[in-house]
Amino acid sequence: MAKGQVVLGPTGRPETIIPAPKPLAQHGPARIIAMCNQKGGVGKTTTTINLGAALARYGRRVLLVDFDPQGALSAGLGVQAHDVPTIYDLILGKEKDPQEVIQHTETKNLDVIPANIDLSAAEVHLVTEVAREQILAGVLRKVAADYDVILIDCQPSLGLLTVNALTASHGVLIPLACEFFALRGVALLIETVEKVRDRLNPQIEVDGIIATMYDSRTLHAREVLERVVDTFGDTVFDTVISRTVKLPDASVAAKSIFDYAPTNLASEAYLKLAREVVQRGVVA
């Protein structure tokens, strides 16, 4: 590279070096963020795990909330989710203290509230509850002071559970696979966020869109990413998560990418994303 030459990243913006975030003088209260996309298979759970683990490596106290009945986040970190209290027990009031449900992971500063298939029955039970959209918010308020960030891994739908997550959150991060069908649903999701802001949670905002599963070798992926940037501008993070077999392999091994393949490019990508998230003020 010639001196003074500007190198453009996948989003078409100049590549920049983002310094590691400074240690925090004190911890909490947490900023609550919903990881949300009603389209499945976009890397949402993978991004929740690895962004959370990256922030934990930078000294942030992180709580991950598995809010998907499939329990993929819990399984992806090797967290026991059967025959133990889960988020389902908390939102139904079977467990009153979230501290009794939180499980620690092998990663320092990274905790999880697990979920399992029982959560699939929650929407039926919540329908008749007073202020049913605000039940998760009440649960997370009890532990917010202990963490710097709480990431909620939402299920791939815009049902009552997802509305609960949006009502509890300060912001929304949207993982978006660089595929046409994934792109189509983003406008609907943003419209849902705006409805929640108008009716239930005036403070919520879209913190950003994270391009995932990017393959620079395909014209399709490059065109989708270009279209996303043209449409949403600076809402799209500069950091792009490329497709690699190491990410699903890490999930199968129940580890973060940092523990499974620390030298893989995906590891550096998620560290860079964590630095950008802090730089943008999404997380302290």
From TrEMBL:
<protein>
    <submittedName>
        <fullName>ParA family protein</fullName>
    </submittedName>
</protein>
<dbReference type="InterPro" id="IPR025669">
    <property type="entry name" value="AAA_dom"/>
</dbReference>
<dbReference type="Pfam" id="PF13614">
    <property type="entry name" value="AAA_31"/>
</dbReference>
<feature type="region of interest" description="Disordered">
    <location>
        <begin position="1"/>
        <end position="23"/>
    </location>
</feature>
<dbReference type="InterPro" id="IPR027417">
    <property type="entry name" value="P-loop_NTPase"/>
</dbReference>
<dbReference type="InterPro" id="IPR050678">
    <property type="entry name" value="DNA_Partitioning_ATPase"/>
</dbReference>
<comment type="similarity">
    <text>Belongs to the ParA family.</text>
</comment>
<comment type="function">
    <text>May play a role in septum formation.</text>
</comment>
<feature type="domain" description="AAA">
    <location>
        <begin position="31"/>
        <end position="206"/>
    </location>
</feature>
